[in-house]
Design brief:
Number of domains: 1
Structural class: mainly beta
Order of helices and strands: EEEEEEEEE
Number of helices: 0
Protein name: Cupin domain-containing protein
CATH class: Mainly Beta
Oligomer: single chain
Shape: globular
Organism: Mesorhizobium liriopis
Pfam families: Cupin_3
Length: 115
Amino acid sequence: MTLFLKINTTSIEPEEGAPDVGRIIEGEPRFKTWNAEEADGGLYAGVWEATPGKWRIVYDEWEFCHILAGVSVIEEYGGAARTVRAGDSFVLRPGFKGSWQVLETTRKEYVIKLP
């Protein structure tokens, strides 16, 4: 077994989903997730894609994101709205509450660490 893992979405069957109906603010957003790594201790890595729409988000986990394509607006309750697009990287920390609005279908690479 190699300890090097190349993330390649063509060799992974995506999981399809959507935000919980009670969290949707507008539109009919849909998700695709290519989870390439699931390690002991609650560590995940892969690629996520969402179609246009807006929904409420609540983070218990820590997540690093790198936007590959598209445009989204992430707004923290009581804070600023931030537009993210291809090339942007950021971290959402546990306790983050707000909304995620996809303006143009957005694809990101992610690494998630559960508490």
